[in-house]
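QA checklist item 7 of 12: single-chain prediction sanity check.
[x] sequence parsed
[x] length recorded as 274
[x] structure emitted
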Amino acid sequence: MLLSAAMTFGDQGMPYTPPDPYALWAAEQERIRRRRRTRNAVAVTTGVVLLAAVAAGALMYAGSDDPAAAPPAATASAKRAVPSVEATLPPDAPTALPSLLARPVIRPEQAFPEKHVRLKDGSRYARVDLASTTDCARGMSPELAELIERGEECARLTAALFTDTERRSQVTVTVLSFRRVEDASRVFAMASMDPVTYQVVSLDPPPEAGMPTVPPGSAGVFRRLMTVRSVVFSNGQWSDGAEAEEALITKQTEDLLRYVNDKVVAYEQGGTGR
């Protein structure tokens, strides 16, 4: 399902033709978008699911973007209270985990090594922007930043903007890395349950890319996966904000998410990256 997004560098969206309470949310996200234009660089998982991801480096699952699974944002009269969420490691977590977490977090050039990407199905994409920051709060919603503050701070946020060969699509893939698995799990859980509120931000195209900025409130597809210590987000939209060809923009969004996620998994499981 295409969701509406108004936050840029917009994420996690809400259903098209939203009720009136969403108008305030959209205005707030547009304010955040303008502030972040510099582009400096969202179910608590069970012990079994967390263990599977840590032990095998496998994808956990893509959080549902069904609007029914995403509670509406705060109304004008009340600010959303960030819930208390605890995530702990299972008692039988792999013994290799401490050594994996001792590795430095993935760097931008390891997560996004290629400016021109060709996927296994032959589809091609160009990376038109790359941003990275250790001040992760600058690239996410205030609610997500507050959630993260309840644990240990985010270690690094890195995002890249991709477009297809026709330069119609804009897909931002963001890697949000943590020092502790518990903190990554907490973020993944909340972003999966409420993608409207706990969101990272899409990149605006840089001027030299010659691409338009996606209109605020435009439709989008938003997905996320978790690795050992990172949450990988993917936000896909058409440059003109169109609602058409949902299946195609969904495929591009999910394909690029898997492409980057594979890079992160390989590195976090002990690989050297590229």
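[x] summary fact logged: Residues 246-268 form the longest helix (23 residues).
[ ] second reviewer sign-off
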